[in-house]
Design brief:
The protein is mainly alpha-helical. It is 71% helix and 0% strand. The protein has one domain.
């Protein structure tokens, strides 16, 4: 795994990328940046959110950029990623979500709070905070039914970048 990214770095990155706009409005610049520097992340977020509404997709692109930039500032150089890595992470995260979703809410909350299987907890906290309890500057209108699928896609991006940061090897697309 990559070195753990802290809350301060994530907050700094998010504020810089968002500026004075909402996450949805900031997504255009985020999409352009990801297209230039890490197109696999952009493609995965767009494909993974294809069935969600436009605002959910826009916020997903912005958050994908926050995740990518946080890893970049923590020392991960942009390089090609394998599509199979995203597919594997998505499958594993969907399976985890099913197991957690079947548990009573209190058990699920405890698991997510104390699990050692969650990588990069500062990024997970930022993503869930923005999705579930956005600050005034981060307001969005994401439908409740889109929150789970969007989180799973973004957690998969975190997992892939975290694993790739550890290997440090360029992998073919």
């Amino acid at each position: 795994m990559a070195p753990e990214i802290d809350d301060t770095l994530v907050t700094h990155v998010a504020r810089r990328l968002q500026g004075s706009r909402t996450p949805g409005a900031a997504s255009g610049a985020s999409a352009e940046r990801l297209l230039r520097e890490q197109p696999e992340v952009l493609a995965f977020v767009l494909a993974g959110t294809a069935q969600l509404n436009a605002e959910s997709r826009a916020v997903g692109v912005f958050l994908g950029d926050v995740i990518f930039e946080s890893f970049r500032l923590a020392g991960r150089d942009p390089r090609a990623l394998r599509t199979t890595a995203f597919v594997t992470a998505l499958r594993e995260n969907r399976e985890m979500a099913l197991r957690v979703g079947q548990a009573h809410d209190r058990f699920a909350e405890r698991y997510l709070k104390h699990s050692n299987t969650l990588r990069q907890p500062a990024l997970i906290r930022y993503v869930t905070g923005l999705l579930l309890e956005p600050e005034e500057a981060s307001r969005h209108e994401i439908p409740r039914d889109d929150l789970g699928p969007l989180f799973i896609v973004l957690k998969s991006v975190i997992d892939v970048l975290d694993t790739d940061s550890t290997t440090g090897l360029e992998v073919g697309a």
